[in-house]
Amino acid sequence: MVVLVAVWSLSTVSAVHAQTTVRFTTVVGTIDVELFDQDTPITVANFVGIVNRGDYDNTFFHRSVPGFIVQGGGFQATFPSPLDVPEVDPITNEPGISNTRGTIAMAKLGGDPDSATTQWFFNLANNADNLDDQNGGFTAFGRVLGNGMSVVDAIAALPIVNLGGELFSEIPLIDAGAPLTNQNLVIIESITVLGEDPDPDPDSDPGSTSLYFPVLPQGADGFNGLALLNRSSDSVQLELELLAEGSTAKGILEIEPGVQVARLVSEIFGENAAAPAWIRFNSEGTQLASFFQFGKSDFSQLDGGVAVSQPSTTLYFTRVFDGATAFRGQSATTTLSILNPNATSVLLKLTYVLPAGDQSLFLTIGPRKFLYETAAKLFWENLSDGYVKAEVIQGEGVVGFEIIELPDSSTVLGLNAALESTGSQLFSAQLAIQEGLFTSLNLVNATSESRKVQLTAVDSNGANFGEAVGHRLSAGAQLSLDAGVLFGGQDFTGSLRVDSDGPGVVGDVIFGDASNLNFAASLPLQAETFREAIFSQLANGMGFFTGVALFNPGSVDAEFTLEVFSSAGVSVGQATQTLEAGRRISQLVDQFVPASAGQVGGFVTIVSDQPLVGQMLFGVSGAEGVTLFSAVPPTVVE
C-alpha cells in the first residue's frame, strides 16, 4: 500500500502543469524549482512577488529536521542579529497537491490554515500522511527539478545546532565547530525567476575535447612549463586560456605538423602568468601529446605529468600528508587543486577517508574557478594517512591535481587525481628495493564492496621476486606499505603488477632517496596498457638524464620500436627489440638510441605489437650522484 501511495503521489505531481521556474542560488549549490501556477495561483503570486522584490536574497536556511524538511524564507543573514524578511499579508491556503519528496510548501502558524506569509520548506521525504490534512493541509506550490534534491539533501546532511530559543533550535551550519558567523550559515544568495523554459541542464558545458594543465606557485626562482606535440598532418593554432584567481589571460601557440613545442608558462602569458592557476585549451580536431613540469630553476625541485583530458564527477587524491613528521619522518604539506571548467557552479563534497572515520565538507566552486587549498586547512593538521574523495553533488565534472611538498629536503611531488577504475589490473613499470632507495606503494579500494588484491613484484627476467602478497581491502579501505617491507629483501629492481578480483582499485607509487628524501618522484599506478605511446619531452644533456622503463604484462612476447625525434619532428634514430612475456627493460634513452646523447628537447615514440606498460624518468646527476627525480606516464595513442 505504501509503495502504491508513493507512486501515485509522484505521478500526481508530474502531471501538474507548471508555468514558472525559479532558481535558488545557495552557498551549497543551485536548486531549480518548477511552480504550480494554475493549481496554486495565490501562493505562487505571493512567492514570486517576494522573489522579484529581492527580499529572499541573502537569507538562510534556519531549520532542518532530518528525514522531514529543511526550511527558509524567514530571516536575513545578519548574524549575530538576524532580521526578519519584510512582512507580507497572510495568504489563503491552497491545499490539494501532495507533500511528497521534492515538493516545496508554505509554512504557517499552528491552528491557522490561512497564515502563510514568507516562510517555505522543502519536503525531504513523502510527508503526505502528515502534512496533506494537518492544519487544513499544507500548500505544496512547486517541485524541485533535475538533480536539485542532491543540494537539498546536502543541506539536510549538515550538522544541526541549537542556538537557543524557539526560532533557531534546529539550524543547519557549515563548519559547526567554528565560531558562529554568517560564513557558517547556509545562505541563499538569491532566488530568481527563470521563465517558462529554463535550460534543462544548467551545468552542461561542452568541454570533452579540452586539455587541462595545473600551474603551481613556484616563486621567483621557479618555473611551470608545458610541451605539446602535434601528431596530425596539419598545422594547428591553439588558443590557451589561463584561469587564475579573479582573472583570465589568453595566449596563442602555433604548432606545425609532427613538431613539438615546449614553452614556459611565463613565455606564453607574460606578466599575466599568475599562479596558482590552470591552463585550458580546446583540442577538438587535433591530435596532441602533452606533458608538463614544474619546479625550481636551480633544479632543486622537479616533477610533472600529462595533461588532464577527462573531467570527472568523482576524483581520488590518493595521498595526504601534513605535519612535522608526516612522510617518512619529514615535514610535509599536501595541497589540493580542483578546477571547475564548466560554465556554471559545481557543488563538491570532499571526504577525508580514514580507518577511524570519515570527515566530509561541502563547498561550491564557481564557473571556471578552482580550489587551491592545503588538506590541513580543509580538514585538520597532522595528517599522515588516508585519502580524499571528491564528489560532484551538482554540476558537471571537475579536474584535479595534488602537490606534496617536503620542505625539509626541498622536494616536491605531484599526482594527477585518480579517476574511478573500470579494470582489475594495475601496473608500475618501475619498482626498486635497494639500499639507499625506497618505494612506497599505495592502494585505495574506491568501491562499496570489498576487494581481494594480489601484489606481484617481477624482475627483469620475468621471475617473481619472492611470493606474491595478497590482501583483502574492505570497501573504501587504503593499503600503504613500503615495498621492502611488503616483499622483503634489500636488492631488487623490477616491475609491479596488482591483480584485483573486481574493478575499482586505484593507487600510486612514490620512490626516491631513502636517507633524506633529497630526490623523490610519484606516479599513479597505470591501469591502461598501450601498443603505441608518446613521451613528449626529452633531456639527455646539461646534467639531465632521461630513462624509459617498459614492462610486458602479457603472455606473448612483444616486439617494440623506440624512436627518438628532435623538436622539429626529425627522426634522430630508433631501436627495435623483443621484450619477452612477463619481462621488463629499463634503460637510458641514449642507451636505446646512442645518437640522442646530449639532446635536450624532442620526444620519444614507442610502437609495439603487444600491450605494454611504461613510464619515463627524468633526473639530474652530478658529482654527488642523482639529486633529482621526476616520473611521468606516456600519452597513450593506441
How would you describe what is shown here?
With 638 residues, the chain is mainly β. The protein folds into 4 domains: 2-195, Cyclophilin-like (Cyclophilin, Beta Barrel), CATH 2.40.100; 210-305, Sandwich (Hypothetical Protein Tm1070, Chain: A), CATH 2.60.290; 425-524, Hypothetical Protein Tm1070, Chain: A (Sandwich); 528-638, TM1070-like (Hypothetical Protein Tm1070, Chain: A), CATH 2.60.290.11. 9% of the residues lie in helices and 46% in strands. The protein has 8 helices and 45 strands. The strands form 9 sheets. The protein has a 9-stranded antiparallel beta sheet with strand order 3-11-1-2-8-6-7-5-4. Strands 38, 39, 40, 41, 42, 43, 44 and 45 form an 8-stranded antiparallel beta sheet that branches. Strands 24-23-26-20-29 form a 5-stranded antiparallel beta sheet. A hairpin with a 5-residue loop joins β18 and β19 (302-305). The two termini are 55 Å apart. Residues 1-18 and 196-208 have low confidence and may be disordered.
Topology:
Blueprint (H helix, E strand, L loop, with lengths): L1 H14 L4 E7 L3 E6 L5 H13 L5 E2 L2 E3 L3 E4 L30 E4 L13 E4 L4 H4 L8 E5 L3 H9 L3 E2 L9 E2 L14 E9 L14 E6 L6 E9 L5 E9 L2 E9 L4 E5 H5 L7 E6 L5 E9 L5 E4 L8 E4 L5 E5 L2 E10 L6 E8 L5 E7 L4 E5 H4 L8 E8 L4 E8 L4 E6 L1 E2 L5 E9 L3 E9 L5 E9 L9 E5 L4 E5 H5 L4 E9 L4 E9 L6 E5 L5 E6 L8 E8 L6 E8 L5 E9 L4 E5 H4 L10 E20 L2 E8 L2 E2 L2
Antiparallel strand pairs: 1-2, 1-11, 2-8, 3-11, 4-5, 5-7, 6-7, 6-8, 9-10, 12-17, 13-16, 13-18, 14-15, 14-17, 18-19, 20-26, 20-29, 21-22, 22-25, 22-27, 23-24, 23-26, 27-28, 30-35, 31-34, 31-36, 32-33, 32-35, 36-37, 38-43, 38-45, 39-42, 39-43, 40-41, 40-43, 43-44
